[in-house]
Amino acid sequence: MIRILHIAAKDLKEEFRTKQMLNSMVLFSLLVIVVFSITFAPILGSSQDVAMVAPGVLWIAFIFAGSIGLSRSFVAELENGCLEGLKLCPIGRSSIYTGKMMANMVLMLLVEIITVPLFAIMFNFSITGLFWLGIIIFLGTVGFVCVGTLLSALTVNTRTREILLPVLLLPLVLPALIPAVMATGSILMGASYGDISQELRLLLVYDVVFFLVAQLVFEYVIQD
Prior knowledge:
Blueprint: H1 2-18, H2 20-40, H3 47-70, H4 75-79, H5 83-87, H6 93-122, H7 130-155, H8 161-188, H9 193-221
Helix pairs in contact: 1-6, 2-3, 2-6, 3-6, 3-7, 3-8, 6-7, 6-9, 7-8, 7-9, 8-9
Membrane topology: Multi-pass membrane protein
GO molecular function: heme transmembrane transporter activity
Subcellular location: Cell inner membrane
């Protein structure tokens, strides 16, 4: 566990020193929220209309911003010639995956913490079910990062990784994205836990399944 934390801390320390990727993710996420809110403002009348559109916009912002960060997850090691050294470390390769995933998760959560307040302002939402909204975002993000970290390792050696990663990622995260958007919309309309319990269970199952699958196949993904 300590070695996993060391890998995550290394990535986060490097990112917080420059903040280059984090700033890009935050800026892109906020830009998506602003552009979509301005675009849909003239055609959205009632709060119900807004609740049908706004959750999709929020998750589009998360997914696109996250794709930017995930595409660079293993690039630093590749460009510095450290990827082979990382593979030769006396730790299980699943630990490398978990450490990278944890670092990506922290960055995504930071982006989301900044994005949600602007989202509430731009779409004129008073978010009362903040706790359950946080749970939905967390579970959806875990699934997204689990799959994204694995695919980032898979595509790191390709020249078109920035394009290839979203192409592979979006279809795989769709089973988590749909219940996440539905549950987010329900919460924005004032729903309780009972109304979103099925979506939460789907997200939890998705997270567990893909985390375990990624643990099993990561060794083969980054092998020579």
